[in-house]
Design a protein that fits this description.
Belongs to the leucine-binding protein family. By secondary structure, the chain is of the alpha/beta class. The chain has ten helices and twelve strands. The model has no long low-confidence stretch (mean pLDDT 92).
Amino acid sequence: MFKGIIALLAGATALAGPALAQQQPQMQQIRAAVLRVDAERLPPISRLDLPVADQGFAGARLAIEDNDTTGRFMNQDFEAVEVTASPETAAAELDRIIADGIQFVVVLADGATTLALADQAGDRAMLLNARARGDNLRGADCRANTIHVAPSHAMLADALAQFLMWKNWPDWLLVKGSHPEDEDLAAAYRRAAAKFGAKIVEERVYEDTGGARSTDSGHVQVQAQMPVFTQRAPDYDILVAADESDIFAPYLPYLTWDPRPVAGSAGLVPRSWHPAMEAWGAMQFQNRFEKLANRPIREDDYQAWLALRIVGEAATRTQSADPATLREFILSDQFDVAGFKGQKLTVRDWDHQVRQPILLTTGVLTTSVSPQDQYLHQTSALDTLGIDRPETECTFPEVP
């Protein structure tokens, strides 16, 4: 009798097995890649800014952990392949990533490389630009297959300009470097000055002549140069440095001829993120990153994290792993994502730039966050930062 009951139960379980398996939803896999293009360049002036082996990748790893925290309840699994390349091998690596079936690629590269990769990807993949800041990428050279997670030069310049005008420091001495990327940043500061009513009393160019920068002799040379370089300037409130190449700006604070503060590429610096940020839940974010990477976070890490969180948020909200569905949702007016910045982050439909507050930082803390309260906008105060819809030069092709 007892053996008969056991046999009956075993038979029922065997019959129910296939039915239960059919009811169990299949795990959705959402795959992405992080492509970091490492170009040869001079070491930074400060050893604190030396690149680290996991720069950008550490932020991506934290994003995958965050995505999986929700994903395990939604039957979704997230993955991010980490790929390093040089400017010469980046195209081949992108083709390999796409051939592997990955259609979301976070790109950590300079502007020219990012643009070339976007053209190469075409409609085969969506790129998430997590480093390049050039305004041309959001303007005349915009591409429909690219979302810009990194803030633009215009956003950074506008964020700083709003604060300087709130401080009633409208007269600027603009000092720019001699490289093309420095000119792009300087152009953003000129535009910001005109936009918010500041005045550039004079503009000077610091020529990069090469040579030692961080040796003792280089330090002594620059220490002697900076007071002379900045003397006999018209009266100004603050020196604004446009030094995207990291050639001279860190030497400016306390070495100007006149006793004036420094902002821009040194002193008070506009950033997407800062390792001392604590507000809006950022403390637990910082702690989790530092536990994972055993170092403070950098902007590349935050921007790579945010890029993959955009993909993860779209997958969670749509309950889909289909790349076309995720892309459509990310670019819709229904999408938003949290970024530990006090408000939801969204994507501008006219240039695919991620709207976000900008932190104004010193070496050890966040001084302020822009947009400043007195700057209003009919749609979003975040659109007071960067190129607004009526000003854009971006034209996406019509979708058939």
